[in-house]
């Protein structure tokens, strides 16, 4: 009642969340709604895709789905993020005028649908219908439902022509492509960009006899000493040798840094920033008495679990690396430093959308601090390998150059290309490793390439 005794007119309560769907939704709707929400979280709020699609702590819309629907969400998101500049260009070609300011939610609905129409085996009518439904269910986008319908139907009709028109647009964001062109040249930068569209391989590091495991698992032996698998149905733990701890999953490039030490028998070795433990395992198998250091206790637990499965032992220490002071100096140290992870975009296409130049600058500064401290933990004549999975020299070559320029107690130890047949092109004139995703030719039937990685060997001379 009003104060004058008259009934108040009925008004539908406003939703506290304008994206919430009222009533039953069409089959497949919740999958697309979850994908659009997570795309917004990655592109607009710079959140990690891995975090959003975590089964325990991920986006609520994602966690509410069954496993089959979750897999479809991941496929849609990975495809959208891998092709996003081309998707944006395709949508722009079909709009008479740009979308209004603040229409980001509408953009994400269109992008998710366009990815399905252009690049996924989803019927066009299903992608269109569900995108229109998303628009109708969201008060912010309802007035654009007819626009969504018209644009996406035309996209389906003109798919082949549009795909041809956008085929040369780089799939990396402009800010990062410019950095690649500066570092590698325009042609090589384009090659690296295109490699992002290739599916990432599944590589294994084996305890022994890579050729035998390649034959048993239907893979082939890599020049890094590991095994690359062909596409297969089923799960990794179901493969022969997993439960026995005979191998572990590790990209070919990620297996290189630990191998640069050679034989570590009788040596005291530190693996700094050690989780999840693949490199720790390599150092143990090389004969080292290994101490694995990680700041996070949770990451230490994961590392211990992985070593337990492999039947390997290492001392583990939870510590802030910048404050870590061992009782005794080390003969060898591996510092695989935190980085922007721009070398892993085939696996993690969100990286270039969730990070920017300022992140690279901050991470490079952190890497330099960690490297300078790590050197103080090394015995005279000891060896340190510094590595990370960034493609940007600001996080690799530039960091090392600054440290070497004012640290006379340390010198670079060049890697011999002859010891790495098949990867000679990855070793620079200075003897540093620099892999890029467009490297590594493979037999037919296997995914090519490898992660982008930087690694350098240095020796303490005093």
Mean pLDDT across residues: 93
Task: Give the distance, in angstroms, between the N- and C-terminal Cα atoms.
Answer: 87 Å
Q: Tell me the major beta sheet.
A: 8 strands, mixed
SS-based class: alpha/beta
Query: Unreliable segments (pLDDT under 50, ≥5 consecutive)?
Result: 1-23
Quaternary assembly: single chain
How helical, in percent, are the residues? 40-55%
Features:
462 residues, alpha/beta, eight-stranded mixed sheet, 18 helices, disordered N terminus
Describe this structure in words.
- This protein is α/β, with parallel strands linked by helices and 462 residues long.
- It is built from 18 helices and twelve strands.
- It has helices at residues 29-43, 49-52, 60-63, 67-82, 84-94, 104-119, 124-137, 145-157, 159-166, 174-184, 186-195, 210-217, 256-259, 278-285, 297-310, 351-354, 357-375, 397-405; strands at residues 202-206, 220-221, 227-229, 247-249, 268-272, 289-294, 315-318, 330-336, 378-388, 410-412, 433-435, 453-460.
- The strands form two sheets. Strands 5, 6, 7, 8, 9, 10, 11 and 12 form an eight-stranded mixed sheet that branches. It has a four-stranded antiparallel sheet with strand order 2-3-1-4, covered by helices on one side.
- Helix 1 packs across helix 6, helix 5 (84-94) packs across helix 6 (104-119) and helix 10 (174-184) crosses helix 11.
- The longest helix is centred in the C-terminal third of the chain and has 19 residues, at 357-375.
- The chain is elongated and about 70 Å long.
